[in-house]
Amino acid sequence: MRIATQGRHFLANQKEISFFCMEWNLRNITVSIEMSIPEGAASSMRIEEAEKQEHEKMNECPWRKTGEAITYRAVHLLQASAAGQSYLSITGEQMKHILSTAIVAAASAVSLPAAAQISDDVVKIGVIVDQTGVYSANGGPGAIRAVEMAIKDFGGKVNGKPIELVSADYQNKVDIALSKTREWIDRDKVDMIIESTDSAAAIAMQKLGADKKRIMIFAGSASTALTNKECSPYGIHYVYDTYALATGTGRAVMQQGGDTWYFLTADYAFGSSLEKDTTAVIREMGGKVLGTVKHPLSASDFSSFLLQAQASKAKVVGLANAGRDTQNSVRQAAEFGLTKGGQKLATLLLFDTDIKGMGLQVAQGLLFTTGYYWDRNDETRAWSKRFYDIHKAMPTMIQAGAYSATMHYLKAVQAGDTDNADTVMKKMKDTEINDFFAKGGKIRANGRMVHEMYLAEAKKPSESKGEWDIVTIKQTIPGDQAYQPLSESTCPLIKR
């Protein structure tokens, strides 16, 4: 419990009287406590509701009202009891003892909720992304700008306390992501970290967040491990995951007759998770996986991998990769004539920036699943155009999700008047997300934020009416269908 105190000392009848104003958030509770104080002083503490008019007259304590909780005033009266003593001398250590004893006594008399607080008088947010590498267009500097927008739109303060942002480029290296996260928590006292990294880095950050009791929001990583065996009471998987991508794109391609597959898979946690989840959909629907080949991150030459896929005679070549790796895969597949030979590409993770990078001549007809598209309705268009004015590109789902997640976090801090991770997480899970990014979004016990996903298709050049008019939304996938059922999650936090 945090006690805010103000002291005032004066002499009355040759005896010093000290008033100490304390703040608790109470709910219609009145407490009177008698307690003995060292050094021969007697103490009486009464807690009473402070009317605003009285506060203005006495000018002793800040008036504050948060939600339904009313701020009460505790007047701690200390007076000398020894005859003839003209003053009472109380050292800092004695006062600390007095206050701690008062708190214990009050807590034993009634159940007093802990008063809220913003630690270090600042709310500090860290954003860690790939700023220059293979995933930099998907999240990158745009994700940082989205969080900056959220902080500015929130007013730059939470209940009078400033909001600060720190950011870093993790260079697609797990050790850098982990060391920077640890530094932010231990040295810089960062309260929440939001990322756009790879899944291996995200899993490492999730473990550190659980150990340090810091909120981690995953906007860019995709592995379902984050809400299964690697889940954390302080982790939120906000934008998308490999289960949703497989459910959307994998199912749609299977329904179009693509029942035999060959995978080109990025050789790390994300690629393996995406291949695994898509394979489950294929087999559930009666399809077959004829083979798979793994490629390193940031590969430039996909020729040997594509030749193996071509030789498999699979109807579908599933690209379980992302960013520039996906762009290079699609371009080189066109050069090798895969689609002209009758094979179909399934881009299991594709962003607007990828389509823009490849151009519609190459990307046209590609099916993919996304959590956001800028031109979906008036609300998405309004926010996205504001983002465009700053970033000079329309937002990806990661960037839009980073803004939404930051606002949701700040609203929870505001409502509880605290940045305590447990309190804020509870508020975030108890509160629906209803904004331009998600309607009726809900954070489950395992940390999965459930919201609608969209099956999309890249337009033909002849269909585009503008620079960023590049996608058609084919289908809306309800959140409870898009994401893994909670009953199937292996997260140990779920009560069975």
Polypeptide structure, described:
There is one protein chain. By secondary structure, the chain is an alpha/beta fold. 36% of the residues lie in helices and 25% in strands. The chain is built from 15 helices and 21 strands. The strands form 5 sheets. Strands 1, 2, 3, 4, 5 and 6 form a 6-stranded antiparallel beta sheet that branches. Strands 8-9-7-10-11-12 form a 6-stranded mixed beta sheet, with helices on both faces. Strands 14-13-15-16 form a 4-stranded parallel beta sheet, sandwiched between helices.
Oligomer: single chain
Query: Could you estimate the helical fraction of the residues in percent?
Result: 25-40%
What's the overall geometry?
Answer: globular
The average pLDDT value, as a whole number, equals 82
Helices, by number, come to: 15
Low-confidence stretches: 1-115
Radius of gyration of CA atoms, rounded to a whole number: 29 Å
> What structural class do the secondary elements suggest?
alpha/beta
Helix-strand layout with pairing:
Layout: E1 6-12, E2 15-26, E3 31-37, E4 41-49, H1 52-58, E5 65-66, E6 69-79, H2 92-109, E7 123-129, H3 140-154, E8 157-158, E9 161-169, H4 174-186, E10 192-196, H5 199-212, E11 215-218, E12 235-237, H6 242-255, E13 260-266, H7 269-284, E14 288-295, H8 303-312, E15 316-320, H9 323-335, E16 344-347, H10 352-358, H11 360-363, E17 367-370, H12 378-391, H13 397-416, H14 421-430, E18 442-443, E19 449-450, E20 453-458, E21 471-477, H15 479-482
Parallel strand pairs: 7-9, 7-10, 10-11, 11-12, 13-14, 13-15, 15-16
Antiparallel strand pairs: 1-2, 2-6, 3-4, 4-6, 5-6, 8-9, 17-20, 18-19, 20-21
